[in-house]
Amino acid sequence: MAVDRTFRICPQTGLAYHRPAEQLMKAHAVAGVVALLVGGVLALFVALTRWPAVHMLPADKFYQALTAHGIDMLIFWIIFFEMAVLYFTSSTLLRARLATPRIAWAGFALMVIGALLTNWAILRGNSSVMMTSYVPMPAEPNFYLGLILFAVGALIGCFIFLATLVIARYERTYEGSVPLVTFGALTACIIAILTIVNGAIILIPTWLWSLGYIGNIDALLYRVIWWGLGHPSQQINVSAHVAVWYAIAAIVFGAKPMSEKVSRMAFLLYILFLQLASAHHLLVDPGVSAEWKMFNTSYAMYLAVLASLIHGLTVPGSIEVAQRRKGYTKGLFEWLRKAPWGNPVFSGMFLSLVVFGFLGGISGVVMGTEQINIIIHNTIYVPGHFHATVATGTTLAFMALTYFLIPTLFRRELVMKGLAKWQPYIFGISMAVLSLFMMGAGTLGVARRHWDMAFAGNPMGFEYPTTAYLMMGLVGISAVGAVIGGAAYILITVGSILFGRKLPAGETTTQPEPVRAPVAEALEGHGGGVGVLEARGTFVLAMLLLVSFVVYYFINWKYLASVWGLS
Amino acid sequence: MSAILPPSQRLWWKEPVERIEIVWIAIAFVWCLILTFMMPYWHVFGKQNLSNEAYRTTPQAFAAKAQAVVDKWKVREVNGVPVVKPPAGADIYLVGRLWQWWPAYELKKGESYRLHLSSMDWQHGFSLQPVNINTQVLPGYEMVITVTPNKAGEYTIVCNEYCGIGHHSMLGKIYVVD
User: Which of A136, A464, A567 sits opposite B51 (nearest CB)?
Assistant: First the structure.
């Protein structure tokens, strides 16, 4: 069987798309957007039910919709898109042919079948067990089987990514080391493999248990290992979207990493320490010791947090350096004011970065503190946190990347450019507000995954403070805004792919030029310990983040100190 | 376009690092050390820590202990649920089951009680409102927390771990008196 070595050179960007890889990337991106559409419709139902004044769905439908919303968004949308990112960062950025495209298609088919199977099981109504499917609450066997098939498909994609890196090296399609973005994607891939192994260890026995072959699965054991899947899978997203941030900084500004060493070391810290995050969900569980909790929840010594703080400086820092080079040197922030805020590729990426850092990052560390978790665990604060990290951080970064991919990968001009300009703001700001009010309501004790905060008709009833109701109302309103933003994204992307003006395909070749390091820049270097604080505006923003972090962290200790004595 | 191109210097790990990065890494690392330090610090000086005390149990064994406490110190009922008034320092048992916390308790402000928690069936979430104290309750595990109420009033235990269709109706009561 001959290997297809055809590459298309994109006329606008100069990127070389291996033909089979191009088809695969399109398929994964489209499947992801379909999952996003389903998850988004469900999001509206869920939000309109939790909005106390609307309270739309009956209880059973609410729990069913919430289960599917979580799985379609957190797992299917994100991982489908991540596979496209893996293929892009390996095959396209390295100008290498994708390894074994047929097996890649088999992986894709498994992922689609898995996604359909799990959704079908939920649709049948007997698998409303939430994304976490905590035993011993049972779901239908197909619920677990679908997830297992999906994971196997994703695992195949990971190995194809790795094999493509090997091919690129062997066929010398690039000089020197892989680009930083590919390095970040490699981080994501390694974490993904470790995550999927955890998933297999727990979901396969759970599936056998649901079929009756295993008598009992220990509830705590399930939680420890399931969260070895559940939390690190979000760290795949972190690595992937940080890689996307660097990519967009490079694409839009021609930004060069401030120093390769620092950024790469920060990615390495993710691999080394993010795996410990399972503990974040077990901080108030019986049977796990305080020492275990402290070591694991802090990623040894907050070393993965350190990594994110580093990226938080180096990504905008690299943009600032690039902008200052272009002459935007006035004051601290001219580089930022003069950034292309009307370009959704940039605005989406930058909003993703800011919301991820300020809301997602800070809230994550605060609630991951062993004792502070007592006043946060399982309240709606938790979804508040991850709507800042995943729904804004990851999803918005991927949306921003899509606006770049539509002309170059799908070869279509964007339709509704005016709407596209606004879409990242509508989605990002609504989602940030939603997160903020969820956190507020959680601080007041409102439970997550709960149909009726009013406990209507219950003689044991309890009245949350009116502020909590107000906040949940605002959550509902901002959710509607976020759904409109998400719908706009789907409208624009689907509209562009179907009806956008066709762009020229560019030349094809079987022997693309190898990727070379930019020689001129190497000679010129920049900064490099010469004592010029080129990224001083970013430094000020980073200090602002740190101050907010410190203040909010200690406010929570003070709040904790006011509750009942516990020992 | 350098983050998507190979590093300009082949030996990228020998490149000098920007000074601003070093300063930031140093500051961030100090903050990470403070974050790490706060947890053991609170174990020594803070008053809100969960104990390491937990046992394996069975629903039958745990239910029997809860029943014994009810038989000994029941004072009244609220909506058909017994209200138990234990002496200070007593071991008290709270059963989580579909979809009820059982029994209810009347505690004295400022006194300590050893609260045992377990589930009869699925996973539950003990969420004491309005103080907002939350822990996970698992079947097969008995967690012991020494609680010292610091304010009188009526407290509601909400279930905040999803436990099926009646989850939102799963409530319990703790009354704290002066």
Answer: A567
The two three-digit tokens of residue B29, written as one number: 């690392």
φ, ψ (nearest 5 deg) of residue B24: -65, -45
Q: Which of A375, A542, A565 is closest, CB to CB, to B132? A: A375
Q: What length does chain B have?
A: 178
| Minimal C-alpha gap between B131 and chain A (Å) | 6
Average pLDDT for residues A63-88, to the nearest whole number? 97
Query: pLDDT digit string (tens) for A386-440?
Result: 999 999 999 999 999 999 999 999 999 999 999 999 999 999 999 999 999 999 9
Q: What's at A144, amino acid-wise?
A: Y
| Nearest beta carbon to residue A177 from set B12, B54, B168 | B12
CATH number at residue B163: 2.60.40.420
- Quickly state the pLDDT bin for A273 (edges 50, 70, 90): confident
- Averaged confidence pLDDT in chain A: 94
Query: Are the beta carbons of B3 and A179 separated by less than 8 Å?
Result: yes
Percent of chain A with pLDDT over 90: 88
State the burial class of residue B52 (Cβ atoms within 10 Å of its Cβ: 0-12, 13-18, 19+): middle
pLDDT of residue A519: 61
Task: Name chain A contacts of B159, Cβ cutoff 8 Å.
Answer: 447
Supply the pLDDT for residue A531.
40
CA nearest to A396, candidates A65, A77, A90: A77
Residue in A62, A260, A555 to test binding to B, most B beta-carbons within 10 Å: A260
Please, are residues B131 and B155 in contact by the beta-carbon 8 Å criterion?
yes
Domain that holds residue B138: 54-177
Q: How far A190 CA sits from the closest chain B CA (Å)?
A: 19
| Residue that has been written with the tokens 């309270």 in this structure | A55
The first and second tokens of residue A479, run together, are: 């959710």
Q: Based on the domain organization, do B88 and B21 belong to the same domain?
A: no
Residues B79 and B144 reside in one and the same domain: yes
For chain B, how big is the Rg over CA atoms in Å? 24
Please tell me whether residues B32 and B70 are part of one structural domain: no
- Could you tell me which of A324, B53, B76 has the C-alpha nearest to residue B84? B76
Q: Which residue is closest to B136 within chain A, CA to CA? A: A285
Smallest Cα–Cα separation from A46: which of A399, A448, A376, A521? A448
- Residue A529 above 50 pLDDT? no
Q: Which residues in chain B have Cβ-Cβ distances shorter than 8 Å to A375?
A: 132-134
Look up residue A551 and give its two tokens: 């203040």
Looking at residue A532, what is its pLDDT?
A: 52
pLDDT at B57 over 80: yes
* CA-to-CA separations, A298 to A274, A294, A365, in angstroms, rounded: 10, 6, 8
A331–B contact, CB cutoff 8 A: no
Same-domain status, B78 and B164: yes
